[in-house]
Amino acid sequence: MPVNLKLPVAAELSAVAGLELGIAEAGIRKANRKDLLVMRVAAGSTVSGVFTQNRFCAAPVTVCRENLLAKTEIRALVINTGNANAGTGETGMANARATCAALAQQLGIAPDQVLPFSTGVIMEQLPIERLLAGLPKAVAALRGDAWLDAAQAIMTTDTQPKAVSRQVQIGGQAVTISGICKGAGMIRPNMATMLGFIATDARVSQHVLDALTKRAADASFNSITVDGDTSTNDSFIIMATGQSKAPAVTGLLTPEGKAFAAALNEVAIELAQAIVRDGEGATKFITVKVEGGRDAEECRKVGYAIGHSPLVKTAFFASDPNLGRILAAVGYAGIADLDQTKIDLYLDDVLVAKDGGRDPAYKEEDGQRVMKQSEITVRVVLNRGDAARTLWTCDFSHEYVSINADYRS
Amino acid sequence: MPVNLKLPVAAELSAVAGLELGIAEAGIRKANRKDLLVMRVAAGSTVSGVFTQNRFCAAPVTVCRENLLAKTEIRALVINTGNANAGTGETGMANARATCAALAQQLGIAPDQVLPFSTGVIMEQLPIERLLAGLPKAVAALRGDAWLDAAQAIMTTDTQPKAVSRQVQIGGQAVTISGICKGAGMIRPNMATMLGFIATDARVSQHVLDALTKRAADASFNSITVDGDTSTNDSFIIMATGQSKAPAVTGLLTPEGKAFAAALNEVAIELAQAIVRDGEGATKFITVKVEGGRDAEECRKVGYAIGHSPLVKTAFFASDPNLGRILAAVGYAGIADLDQTKIDLYLDDVLVAKDGGRDPAYKEEDGQRVMKQSEITVRVVLNRGDAARTLWTCDFSHEYVSINADYRS
User: Fold this and answer.
1) Is A358–B408 a contact, with Cβ atoms under 8 angstroms apart?
2) How sure is the predictor about A191, in pLDDT bands with cuts at 50, 70 and 90?
3) What is the crossing angle of helices B310-317 and A398-406, to 10°?
4) What is the C-alpha to C-alpha distance for residues B238 and B48, in angstroms, rounded to an integer?
5) DSSP conformation class of A71
6) Chain A contacts of B401, Cβ < 8 Å?
7) CA torsion sign, B395 to B286 to A54 to A94?
8) I want to staple B201 with a disulfide (CB 3.0 to 4.6 A). Which of A35, B17, B21, B133 is the partner?
9) C-alpha count within 13 angstroms, C-beta hemisphere, residue B113
């Protein structure tokens, strides 16, 4: 059961002018389920992406990188679920390229104008014939208002589709931002994310879109963890069709740039949080705020040490305020000169530890009260600087073990 | 249920001349259980130790470091279970010092000749009156052949005591090495270990003992992980009483030094493996061999990425050869210039992946056969150098979640 994750409603998801989505049932892994998505982007759009830092990246990630570097105009994306096409060697690369070539032919574009994405089981070859056979069906289904279907078509162990739309006024004109993502396990994005796709009708120059994509990823998908496992297939793409009437976004510090970046980050953060709320086996949504660090990087280290600790995560699952485990995680986060006698720990509004030791006024029942909530904020104050960082994670339950012991069956 | 972990037998554990052990029931956390251990070391012994790198270290660890730096002759150790005396601030430091002072008075030595150790729950104050009241009972019980009782007295979530003895001939004379350790969760020793104590009647000069201690820790306790959580209390101590008739060990490369180091490492590795075999919820004992690395450090990173991955560990629990998860962990281990097309993966004798992709001859049933075993070797060949490193870990089961959701109750 996801934690306070609203089921998206098709009517609340806005079409983005210049962007069409087509879904098919290709039978990649299981019959009778949406598992293939094609996105067509209008000519004149800008597209930017960031990808997993996992050195064992999937074949489609390698092809995406090549095609984005080729500086051709990206005109289409193709995403399959059910198979990650990772750990598949030369055959995997050939299959990813064949997918691009087939879709390009059907859309009348060049193969390097297509970005391919795969998600699912690792180290099994893509059933390429079934995928190619599904492409014409997905192309025939292309339409602008299929965001909810698209969100469903990229799910793996997700229990709910994840989709968000926002509108923002830029220069007095409405700009739409819509996005989808998937992911529930193998979630510890590193400079990228599980699959996330955002489209907007804003007009955004390529270098600004590249910068905004990195910033949005950093504030959202690069600030979550479910289980600490960085996927082989993480990809996050932003497409800007430029078909709104709003003035172009040509800089990060212009009024248009700031307004657009704020709305974009909101969409990205809501999508990233949706992944945590639907984290495998999650029963609690945990916000980890680390403050008073020398720089954001050391705050990030502390946040992830807490967010990855199986001991901290099982204590949240049990609603057990065994909060010394959080202090232990702070201590091994990798800050070599950390002074433990400066550290304060809060659970929501409750001061738990002061100057590195249990606060004399702290009462177990106060910690217990907060631990029983479905949403909890852990706040660690390092008291050694002004930097801060916020991350989001979930607890660790029996259900996580069950899901991952049964994933392929 | 521990994985192939032999229950130690008192008759098979050798007394070490110059070393006495005394156990008491002090009621630190629970009544009617051995929870206090005093070790008295004869005058003329050398003692060396390594401790947790967790910056949030426990009060007794700080006192141990101070007393070892003071260069006085260490004459006694005192260990309590049931409470870690970590995250306890100034009161915790005062309690650790009071423990040393009380034991010193009873033994007629100075307080800085005592090393204190604690293990158990974090961020609760030590029940110092009960601990001090138990000391005379432990001192009255001091005797040489209490190794099994001592191993029982330091257990927390351990399901079995862990103790090992070895004899080695040095210069034609018998030397005895006996050791105990504890630990089952919060196990990812970093330059040190959970509590581990080894005593020998060999005569070993201080600087050689210091070097041997670091090497033994590195080969044993620094090569295991259960859950990736580095404890606040990890400590590993070696005591050499010099009461055997064997010639002194005065160098690492002398015949005596090599023979002694080999036996010492054997004892340390068997103790460290016992912790993994008794890892919380463990059903499988996994050896991770990483070969062909540029240096031992990158092999270590890859080994720990595999050993910490919840996805890999749950696949082992399920006996599911979902081995792409191992490749994914290799990829995110942090080797920036890793070439995935060079990597080979073996499960025992089965070649699973060759040149980064599934080996065409690999059959699922061969992987399945190995995954069903209770002891499994994962071998990753990076093919970029000559360095290698071996680590040991266990799987991740429902029982781990149960144990850590209930630990304090």
Assistant:
1) no
2) low
3) 70
4) 5
5) T
6) 314, 317, 396-398, 400-401
7) negative
8) B17
9) 22
Instruction: Write the burial class of residue A172 (CB in 10 Å: 0-12 exposed, 13-18 middle, 19+ buried).
Output: exposed
Which is the catalytic residue, given B157, B176, B193, B241? B193
Q: Are B235 and B275 in contact (CB under 8 A)?
A: no
Q: pLDDT tens-digit profile of A221-280?
A: 887 787 777 777 788 888 899 899 999 898 888 898 889 999 998 998 998 888 889 888
Q: Does residue B153 contact residue B115 with C-beta atoms inside 8 Å?
A: no
Distances (CA, A) of B254 to B45, B177, B247, B250, B260: 21, 19, 11, 8, 10
Q: pLDDT value at position B186?
A: 75
In the block, tokens 């070993």 appear at B204
Give the largest Cα separation in chain B, rounded: 71
Question: What DSSP state is assigned to residue A331?
Answer: H
Q: Are B229 and A328 in contact (CB under 8 A)?
A: yes
- Neighbouring residues of A209: CB distance < 8 A, sequence distance ≥ 6: A46, A47, A48, A238, A240
Q: Between vectors from CA B20 to CA B211 and to CA B237, what angle results, nearest 5°?
A: 25
Q: Which of A55, A91, A405 sits opposite B338 (nearest CB)?
A: A55
CB A200 within 8 A of CB A177: yes
Residue B226 contacts by C-beta under 8 Å, 6 or more apart in sequence?
B183, B184, B185, B186, B187, B188, B275, B276, B279, B280, B282, B393, B394
CA pair distance B2, B284, nearest whole angstrom: 9
- Rg of chain A over Cα atoms, rounded to whole angstroms, equals 22
Write out the H or E segment, with its range, that includes residue B24. Answer: strand B19-24
Supply the Cα-derived Rg of chain B in whole angstroms. 22
Residue B90: strand, helix, or coil: helix
Whether residue A390 is predicted with pLDDT greater than 50 in this model: the reply is yes
Band of the pLDDT at B408, cuts 50, 70, 90?
low
Sign, CA torsion A39/A43/A45/A48: positive
Mutate to test the interface with B, among A326, A340, A371 (most CBs of B within 10 A): A340
- Of B118, B120, B125, give the one whose Cα is nearest residue B89: B125
Per the model's pLDDT, the better-predicted residue between A291 and A186 turns out to be A291
Contact B86 A328 (CB under 8 A): yes
Catalytic residue among A46, A88, A193, A232: A193
Q: For residue B353, what are its two tokens?
A: 């992946």
The percent helix, strand, coil of chain A (3-state, each to 5) is 35, 25, 40
As beta bridge partners, residue A279 has none
Helix (H, G, I), strand (E, B) or coil at A111: helix
pLDDT in tens, B10-26: 999 999 999 999 999 99
Once rounded to an integer, what is the mean pLDDT over residues B162-180?
91
Left (φ > 0), alpha (ψ -120 to 50) or beta: where does B4 sit? left
Give the span between the Cα atoms of A378 and A288, in whole angstroms.
5
CA–CA distance, A165 with A199 (Å, rounded to integer): 10
Q: In what order do the strands lie in the sheet with A375-381?
A: A224-225, A387-394, A285-293, A375-381, A344-347, A350-354, A357-358
pLDDT value at A289 more than 90: yes
Active site residue B283: no
Helix, strand, coil in percent for chain B, rounding step 5: 35, 25, 40
Give the model's confidence band at B215: pLDDT under 50 very low, under 70 low, under 90 confident, else very high. Answer: confident
Mean pLDDT, chain A, whole residue set: 91
CB atoms A401 and B317 under 8 Å: yes
Instruction: Measure the CA–CA gap between A243 and A17, rounded to whole angstroms.
Output: 6
Domains, chain A, with CATH or none: 10-277 (3.60.70.12), 285-406 (3.10.20.340)
Question: Is 80 exceeded by the pLDDT of residue B191?
Answer: no
